[in-house]
Write a structure and sequence with these properties.
mainly alpha; 2 domains; 465 residues
Length: 465
């Protein structure tokens, strides 16, 4: 028998409701990010920089594809939160079951065969060097071909959070991270009877850990041990009423993810055009990709928590609590961003030194970047929490349009204009990043305050017997 929904999310103090979902999600994101860093360290030690480059290139390709698959789960999260808030467990379970079937069909029927066939061509598109391509090809094929477990795990975790249970995904993620590290320690260097697999071993460790944890999660879900219980008697036939809603609500998030990745690639092209391009790229890789993640990891976690609380309260017919939830989450995010921002300003060279960035030219550019990011983080966290509010209430299109303006048109347009007039320096690019984040924050807040999300209706027809 499944547990009932946690009604404190729609009835208790709003700050407690937000924090109950936020802290496990934020911690889970941090753990996931640290796992990626450990992978890079191990591969770099046992394989070399070619292995690091191979993982970086492969992930860039894999993320562009996976963002479309996971966008379906955004639609699922919107529906689950709305139905959980309305205390409609049958609709919650039906939605999750159909999302599970879609994940099976896409990952095994489309991603696996096409990914295996197209991996060489995809690596050619990014101009990977021959030695990098040799390491990347098996890694990418393993990720495409055997990633069903990871996809199912992310889907189930998202469903549980949307239904009000963020602690179970955190516990599962902790176990998966430890398991992944153990497998990598065996498979990358070839420990004991296991052969030395190098970069391919990192991919195998990831997919095997995901597969094991997804099997455990699916078993628990089918056994009715959690707040979401999928019955074994449910039909394997697709429920097109639910599936259409999953794609209608989720695909805008997928398009948004692709747009963000494209913007990142174009930004790297501008950095590559600088006179001190190598130094700037190194500063960007550490300052923005790694150190700034201290803010983005927690902010993305807050975004997910905000979406769940906002959607549940709107489903319960309490839109005023939805507004309070978004404001509360943004204040939590601002507190974290302010703390990290102070560190960026107070001890920038010490932070950069942790990554071995002691060369004067690189360190100077890195210090300059961290100064901009100390301000930018405040706007990013507000933008993401209000994005969570929009997405959680069912408005998944507005964040897409806002991203197109704030992450592509504004920063890249500014850089193109400056490059034409006088050429670029590093500060121009850091300011463009800040301006983009400011724009995204202002537009997200303004759109949410229009409160057009109050009129969004989400429902599905009764299941046919």
């Amino acid at each position: 028998m499944s547990r009932g929904f946690d009604r404190s999310i729609v009835e208790g103090p709003i700050a407690r409701a937000v924090w109950k979902l936020a802290w496990p999600t934020m911690l889970q994101n941090v753990i996931g990010g640290l796992q990626g860093i450990v992978d890079h360290v191990m591969v770099g030690h046992f394989v070399g920089y070619e292995g690091n480059a191979a993982i970086g290139v492969s992930w860039q390709i894999f993320l562009v594809v996976i963002v479309f698959v996971t966008s379906v789960f955004t639609g699922m999260g919107v529906m689950v939160a709305r139905f959980a808030g309305a205390n409609q467990p049958e609709k919650v379970n039906r939605t999750v079951y159909q999302a599970f079937l879609v994940a099976v069909a896409i990952s095994l029927g489309i991603m696996a065969p096409l990914g295996w066939i197209l991996s060489p061509s995809l690596l050619g598109l990014v101009n990977a060097a021959p030695e990098v391509r040799a390491e990347a090809l098996p890694y990418l094929r393993i990720m495409f071909g055997l990633s069903f477990g990871m996809i199912a795990f992310f889907m189930i975790g998202g469903a549980l959070r949307a239904a009000g249970d963020a602690r179970t995904p955190l516990k599962l993620s902790l176990v998966m991270t430890v398991l992944n590290m153990i497998l990598n320690a065996i498979l990358i260097p070839g420990l004991g009877p296991a052969p030395r697999l190098g970069t391919a071993g990192a991919a195998l460790g990831t997919v095997i850990a995901g597969a094991i944890m997804s099997l455990i999660a699916v078993r628990q879900m089918f056994a009715g041990k959690w707040v979401i219980a999928v019955g074994r008697g449910m039909s394997w036939k697709p429920d097109w009423t639910v599936i259409r809603s999953l794609f209608r609500l989720g695909l805008p998030t997928g398009y948004q993810g692709v747009a963000m990745n494209v913007a990142g690639v174009l930004l790297l092209r501008f950095i590559g055009s600088l006179e001190q391009s190598a130094e700037a790229q190194a500063a960007y890789a550490v300052g923005y990709t790694e150190l700034f993640s201290l803010i983005t990891w927690t902010s993305v976690g807050l975004m997910g928590a905000t979406a769940a609380v906002a959607g549940q309260n709107l489903g319960a017919g309490k839109p005023e609590r939805t507004v309070k939830a978004v404001k509360t989450a943004s204040r939590i995010g601002l507190g974290v961003a302010a703390f990290v921002g102070v560190l960026f300003l107070a001890i920038p060279r010490h932070l950069l030194g942790l990554f071995g960035m002691d060369e004067p030219a690189v360190a100077n550019i890195g210090v300059q970047l961290l100064a901009f990011l100390s301000v930018s983080g405040m706007f990013v966290t507000v933008a993401l929490t209000y994005t969570g509010g929009l997405q959680g209430t069912g408005d998944t299109k507005s964040p897409l349009y806002i991203s197109l303006v704030s992450q592509i048109a504004v920063p890249l347009g500014l850089l193109a204009a400056l490059d034409t007039v006088r050429g670029l320096n590093p500060a121009d690019i850091w300011f463009a990043i800040l301006l983009g984040h400011m724009t995204r924050s202002f537009l997200s807040v303004a759109r949410f305050r229009q409160e057009k999300w109050r009129q969004i209706q989400i429902d599905i027809e009764p299941a046919r017997t």
